[in-house]
Design brief:
Structural class: alpha+beta
Number of helices: 8
Bound molecules: glutathione
CATH architecture of the largest domain: Up-down Bundle
Strand content: 5-15%
Radius of gyration: 17 Å
Strand order of the largest sheet: 2-1-3-4
Order of helices and strands: EHEHEEHHHHHH
Length: about 210
C-alpha cells in the first residue's frame, strides 16, 4: 500500500489524498508535520532533505514534492485522461499545476495565514489587503479561463490540474472577505463538490 507522510489539513498533502481517492488507490497517512512528529526531526529530514510534507513512499521509492507526486501517480496508473502523454495536451494541463504552485499560492498566502489560520505575526492590515487583491486578480484569471474551456481549468473535462486549482479555490471560499462574485468560479467549485473525493478533501466542510 502507498504510504504518505503528512497531515490532513495541509493543502499539499490533500492534493495527493484527493488524487489517490480519484484513482481508487489505498494510501496510509503517516503522521508528520504535527506537534508530535515535526518536519525537522532528523529521521524525516534524512527521508526528505526539503523538510516538508507530503512525502510519498511507494514500496520504498521515496518521493517529495506534491505536484511531482501527482504526475508520478497519474503516469504509474496510466491515466492519460488526467495527464495526457502528448506534449501539447500535457503542457495544457501542467501549466495550471505550475501556476497554482507559484503565482496562485503566492497571492493568497499572507491573507490566508492571517484570516483563516490566524498565525501570529500575520497581522499587517496593508499586507492582508494586498494579498486579498492579488488573490482576487488571480481568481479573475481562473474565471476567464473557465469561460474558455466551458468546464474545468485545463479542458472541458476533469484533469489533474483541477486538483491543485480546486483546493486553492476551497481557500478562496473559506476566507470571509468581501469578494466580487465570479460565477464561473462558483459553478466550477459546485461542480467539483459533486465529486465525492473532492468533497472529502476540498468541500465546504473539509479543512481550508
Ligand atoms: N513544494 C512543496 C511544498 C510543501 C509544503 O510547503 N508543505 C508544508 C505543508 S502544506 C509543510 O511541510 N510545512 C512545514 C510544516 O507544516 O511544519 C510541495 O508542493 O510539496
Amino acid at each position: 500500500m502507498l504510504r504518505l507522510h503528512g497531515y490532513a489539513t495541509s493543502i499539499n498533502v490533500r492534493k495527493v489524498l484527493w488524487l489517490c481517492a480519484e484513482l481508487g488507490l489505498d494510501v496510509e497517512l503517516i503522521d508528520r508535520g504535527t506537534a508530535t512528529n515535526p518536519v525537522d526531526d532528523p529521521v524525516f529530514v534524512r527521508l526528505n532533505p526539503f523538510g516538508l510534507v507530503p512525502v510519498l513512499d511507494d514500496g520504498g521509492y521515496i518521493l517529495p514534492e506534491s505536484n511531482t507526486i501527482l504526475r508520478y501517480l497519474c503516469r504509474r496508473e496510466q491515466r492519460a485522461d488526467l495527464l495526457p502523454q502528448k506534449a501539447v495536451a500535457a503542457a495544457n494541463v501542467e501549466r495550471w499545476i505550475d501556476w497554482q504552485a507559484t503565482d496562485f499560492n503566492d497571492s493568497w498566502r499572507y491573507a490566508f495565514l492571517a484570516l483563516v489560520r490566524k498565525r501570529p505575526g500575520f497581522d499587517d492590515p496593508e499586507l492582508i489587503n494586498r494579498s486579498i487583491e492579488a488573490f482576487d486578480a488571480k481568481a479573475k484569471i481562473v474565471e476567464e479561463q473557465l469561460a474558455k474551456t466551458g468546464g474545468h481549468i485545463a479542458d472541458k473535462e476533469f484533469t489533474l490540474a483541477d486538483i491543485p486549482i480546486g483546493l486553492s479555490l476551497r481557500r478562496w471560499f473559506a476566507m470571509a472577505v468581501d469578494r466580487r462574485d465570479l460565477p464561473n468560479v462558483r459553478h466550477y467549485y459546485e461542480r467539483l463538490c459533486e465529486r465525492p473525493s473532492f468533497l472529502s478533501f476540498g468541500g465546504p466542510d473539509a479543512p481550508a
